[in-house]
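Please decode residue identities from the backbone states below.
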């Protein structure tokens, strides 16, 4: 990472990628409760169904919760990178404005009258 650059456009592209991924994760996590209900219903009401529920429902809940947590992290990362992109762009704009602005006084460059 010797050539890291604070590039607002690259950061914005990264943020867009995280946003897109967050949208996909939202689609995945959206049906979690339905999937758990379907698993419970599909197991049936007999002794084997109860065993299936005991063995699978807990891990299935953990998987659904993990998907939800991943979706939260991705959404947060999208917000953070978007904020960073905005901040970098604002800093770049301020620097460019400052460079174009005439500077007064300071530094003894012999600017007196001759």
């Amino acid at each position: 990472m010797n050539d890291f650059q604070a590039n607002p456009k690259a950061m914005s592209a990264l943020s867009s990628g995280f946003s897109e991924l967050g949208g996909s994760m939202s689609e995945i996590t959206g049906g979690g409760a339905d999937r758990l209900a379907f698993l419970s219903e599909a197991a049936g009401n007999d002794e084997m169904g109860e065993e299936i529920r005991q063995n699978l429902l807990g891990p299935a809940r953990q998987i659904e919760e993990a998907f939800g947590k991943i979706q939260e992290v991705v959404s947060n990362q999208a917000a953070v990178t978007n904020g960073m992109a905005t901040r970098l762009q604002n800093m770049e704009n301020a620097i460019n404005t400052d460079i174009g602005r005439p500077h007064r006084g300071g530094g003894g460059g012999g600017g007196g009258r001759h």
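Observation: The radius of gyration is 28 Å.
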